[in-house]
Design brief:
Length: 187
């Protein structure tokens, strides 16, 4: 019984935090512009324009919403201990996301696959919080993610025809691994 009490007291110092999300989202009705270079066979088959001889819209009804992963989770903990007149803190967080679409037209190569990221920090501070120094690491697994994607300007042509050539894809990329040393002094 004594061992269990010691274990419980230890775990009280290590508070865990976490969350799980599940999202089932889709466009109910959504007619969207075609992506540059999308063919009729690829779904660019609405709103025919006689002057150009091409279609310019697609039906995304029933497709998932943008930036809406079906499943996501995060789990972390923070630990703090006083050692020889200083406070030592440690925090670790893990984040997971299912894949998701980054843009409405559904341009190829702009879907974000599932990913996991890990953040961590070690902090030393005075007991009266006059000073602190921390080593902080974000995205320690160096996982690059697409924040938003679409067609590169001036590439691709023939949108809404049978002879289209797809545009090059571009995307805004999330920050890779980042390490920092943070100093703080309060006076």
């Amino acid at each position: 019984m004594h061992e269990w009490r010691q274990l419980l007291q230890y775990w009280r110092k290590l508070p865990f935090r976490g969350a799980i999300t599940y999202l089932d989202s889709e466009f109910v009705e959504f007619i969207a512009p075609c992506w540059t270079g999308q063919t009729i066979a690829q779904g660019c088959d609405l709103d025919f324009t006689p002057a150009t001889g091409a279609f310019n819209s697609q039906d995304l009804s029933g497709e998932p919403l943008n930036q809406a992963a079906d499943f996501g989770a995060n789990l972390g903990f923070a630990y703090e201990q006083v050692l020889n007149n200083v406070r030592l803190g440690l925090a670790v967080d893990a984040i997971y996301s299912d894949g998701y679409e980054t843009g409405a037209p559904r341009q190829p190569n702009t879907r974000q696959d599932s990913y996991a990221k890990i953040n961590a920090a070690v902090r030393l501070s005075s007991l009266d919080d006059t000073w602190s120094v921390a080593l902080v690491g974000r995205n320690l697994a160096d996982e690059y993610t697409l924040n938003n994607g679409g067609a590169s300007p001036n590439t691709g042509f023939g949108t809404g025809t049978n002879n289209a050539i797809p545009a090059d894809s571009i995307a805004y990329i999330g920050r890779g691994r980042a390490l920092s040393i943070d100093f703080e002094y309060n006076f």
